[in-house]
Amino acid sequence: MSIPPLITFQEDFLSGKLISKEYVHFSEIDCPELDVWIGRVVRSISLEFLHEILFTILSELLVNGCKANGKRVFFKEQGLNLWDDKDYARGIPMYKDEFGHNRKRVFLALDHSNYKITLSTICKEDYIEFRVRNNAKILPEEKNRILKRVEASKKYKNINDAYRESVDNEESSGLGIVLIHILLRNSGISNQFFQLMTTDDFTEVIIRIPKQLIPKENQTNIKNLLLREVNSLPPLPPQIQKLILIAKKKDVDWHEIAAQVEKDPAITAEILKIANSPLFGAHTPIISVLEGVKRIGLKNLESIFLTLGAKKILNSRYAKQVLVWTHSFKTSMYARFLIEDRKKHLKLLEPAIISALLHDLGRMVLLSLDLSQVNQIRVLRSDDNNEISEWVEEYTLGTTHSEIGHLMAEKWNFPEEILDVIRYHHKPWQCKTRNNILCQIIYLADILANIGRGKGNYFTVEPEVLEYFEISSEKEFRDMQDSFKLKFEEHREEYQNLLA
Fold it and tell me: Transmembrane segments in this chain: where (predicted)?
């Protein structure tokens, strides 16, 4: 089944229409199409952090369904009655041996059977629902084993605990069910969102993912605290405001701006560092402010001054700002590499560099606030975890760093293109302004820059974005990422100086 166009998929899914895929061949389960399909579902409703977890869970359910179907075909081939206790006892060791030594033949036999598995999802008001349906009636033995695994999973904190106790995985159906429950539970999703349905015509597992993990009242309280925090941010420093006003003047000249910059030693140092950095393709070092502002360019100075003002305020206020700036500088350079590599939209090179520097402003607030309500999120962690996923934290808070960053940027009167990038850098398809392409650039650069941190891959990128940048295969994507990483590492010392 081919992947539907993005807009149609989103409209159908968000309107509550059932979206389905059928699997007959076992090999289809490993198809990248499944990864892309899950990515579209979770991105539609801002549950990106569940992408890999859901891929693991749904793959496990689909594979188990194929194994169950393979068993039925095998028993028929051997002239055995699956529902007869004696035949079942005789046939299971034979099937295990055949599956272990000739798995490919087992699954090829499914091609000539009437068995199939259907994966479907639907968006409800309070949750999204995934159903994996097998058009085969479940055996009492199979059902009892699944229910036993569901019950057993409650005592395990992680999959290693399950392995250590050597859960009986006869027919490879034991640890998979335990894994599913551990993954769901450690994502904050309780066992009540797992359901097994059986009839004479089919067997179906239902996974329901709630859109909220804490009560709406608590989310509202946290949102209000965040809004108060944003509203309490001071205005940009007076000297920065003055520089911005000068930069906006139609008749401004280089000497006037340079003279004003030189009145503040700290701003002078920052301008020279930026002008000499790889952000602006610096090759020949410069030591004068006049040459520095010329290299940056008049049209970029307002945004650079805004960046310096925001950095000054946030660095003095939030403890984890270095982590965010480090990633932001990396994304900025990856945006430059992307534009130069694809030779598309060279006119957007400098706006992309600057907007990438500011795309994660809101994350500083979310990562640094000491909110009492956030303690409720700690129940989502297993005891041996040291940190909580920022995606889980945002999911639980009921807001995102993009929303908070947009509020901050509005407060400081950032230009429209930066506002759009901050708001839509994870969902460029939602940007309906002339800045859509700029948002796509930062979206892809952000993912490429994050891969080294274990976030994202070729299959998590929206297909239309890959197509737009003419990236047609996973290999091409990986080669691009490797190339950008090498270029970035060449200048790592210079980036670290920018953060000083």
Answer: none
